[in-house]
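Message: Study each token:
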Amino acid sequence: MAGPSPVELNRDAVPDRPDRSEVPDAAALADLAARLTARLGERVETGVPAGSFTTYRVGGEAAVLVRAASPAALEAVSECFGGLDLPILVVGRGSNLLVADAGSPGLVRVLADDFERIDVAPAGGDAEHADAGGAVPLPVLARRLAADGVGGREFYVGIPGSGGGAVRENA
């Protein structure tokens, strides 16, 4: 077979990633955690095992974890995080996500509450439209849509991700 191997092709398609070998400034992390806690309270945790936010239930700790419950909470995270030179990991359902034993050295952001809502609206007497938050598990969405008479999304039952992940990955 002529041409580059599939591994070489995949490597070329992966964008450059930041160097994660440097440990972020501990003072900057503590300041971020304090500012987030002042705004979001118990939604902010430090030293959280990755198993609490991944489907494989393994991995090191998240230095700072925030479970954003609403768009306003996401705005608060953005305001607190702005200007900091720290890594950020955006997590949907944590499906197929492996976190290194060394953990995630910066901010881990997980969607919750308002982002787990599903609203199915009837159009002309039949349920034809649905709004689903980015954190809605796809199997849950598939079952809800089927129960409300919206067809064509049954295949979501077998996908372990979230609505937001499906949009991001063009699923």
Remarks:
- The two ends are 30 Å apart (CA to CA).
- Residues 26-40 form the longest helix (15 residues).
- Residues 55 and 95 are 5 Å apart (CA to CA).
